[in-house]
Amino acid sequence: MLVNGAVVAGKGASAAKGRSAEELEQIRELLRTRFEELDAEYEEAVAQSHRLRLVEIGDSAGDDQADSGSKTAERDAAGSLLRTLLDRRTQAEYAMQRLEDGTYGNCEGCSNPIPVERLEVFPSATTCVNCKQVRERRAS
């Protein structure tokens, strides 16, 4: 079965164990490409955030409350985007490490294989759906 273009073993099989070198390389390349895309997106967002701050510094004279509020909202949105991109980049990097360690595709909670369908949607997944739901319930 394919995971975003990479071959993944069928249900019940460990995602890293029992794979051919070709399959592992396909998954590795998928994760590396995803990491590089996220890294480039993050770096661009950092650059845009810096440009926004420079504009604010030079353009704050005469701001009223509405202008100040708008700028604060833009800063908050930019910061949120940066945190999200950094988190996604870190997840991709962690998935690559798990692949190297031979644990990629196994749930960190129960050690069972993560269903292929979940990995197709979210290649950086570290938990099966059941363990993810348990974690979310505990967090709320």
UniProtKB/TrEMBL annotation:
Native organism taxonomy: Bacteria, Bacillati, Actinomycetota, Actinomycetes, Micromonosporales
Organism: Actinoplanes oblitus
Zinc finger dksA C4-type: from-to: 107-131
Coiled coil stretches, renumbered: 21-48
Biased composition (Low complexity): 1-18
Record protein name field: TraR/DksA C4-type zinc finger protein
Any Pfam family hit: zf-dskA_traR
Keyword hit for Cell wall biogenesis/degradation: no
UniProt keyword Zinc present: yes
Gene3D superfamilies for the chain: DksA, coiled-coil domain (1.20.120.910)
Keywords noted in UniProt: Coiled coil, Metal-binding, Zinc, Zinc-finger
Residue span of region Disordered: 1-20, 59-80
Domain Zinc finger DksA/TraR C4-type: 102-137
